[in-house]
Amino acid sequence: MHAYTRGNNRAPVCFDEWDYGALLRILARTVDGFGWRCHAYCLMPNHYHLLLEVSQERLSRGMRHLNGSFASRTNIRYDRTGHVFEGPYHVELVESDEHLRELTRYIPLNPVRAHLVGSPEKWRYSSYRATAGLEHAPPFLTTSFVRWLFGRGEAACERYGRWVAEGAMSRDQVRGHVGLGH
Question: 181 lies in a domain?
């Protein structure tokens, strides 16, 4: 499943490293606590994307925990009240292998398309670096499945990196674009 949510009125939800770190820590607890398998993620200033393997019931309960926990700490940190996220979340079922492969590129290319960085390996708040073999994966991230889509061993990491780079050159080819206002 491709799950995503954005800030209320497309407003930022992450303002600094501390916010991104807090969201990653809450995501890690959610993955562990609700039995998710997280295959990809990308945290952006005003939204985030997750590629998950999970039942609908565990997704719903986990997303409520993830968004609710982050919203509570955000409201406390910034001395504010009200909604942090625009609605609970959105989910898109992954209906084909082609769609799955496109999402493995769409998700890490979000910060490139938003002109935050020139290449996905420069964005610290996504699974790209770990999946491409550039750093160790956090314990909550399952990199083996996405890598398997591209082969075995280091060659799979290299093929995955090329696949994502090709998508950066031809953004109109990306299937599954959800129009989050990037």
Answer: no
User: Which of 65, 92, 119 is the endpoint of a domain?
Assistant: 92
Residue 179 lies inside a defined structural domain of this protein: no
| pLDDT tens by residue, 12-62 | 999 999 999 999 999 999 999 999 999 999 999 999 999 999 999 999 999
**92-143 confidence digits (pLDDT tens):** 999 999 999 999 999 999 999 999 999 999 999 999 999 999 999 999 999 9
Residue 180 lies in a domain: no
Is 79 contained in some domain? yes
Q: Of 117, 140, 143, 120, which is closest to residue 42 (Cα–Cα)?
A: 120
Cα separation, 46 vs 129, whole angstroms:
21
Cα three-residue angle 93-97-99, rounded to 5 degrees: 55
88 with 108, same domain: the answer is: no
In the block, which residue shows the tokens 């550039």? 134
Side chain identity at 105, as an amino acid letter?
A: R
Q: Return the beta strands (E) in the chain as ranges.
A: 2-6, 37-43, 47-53, 90-92
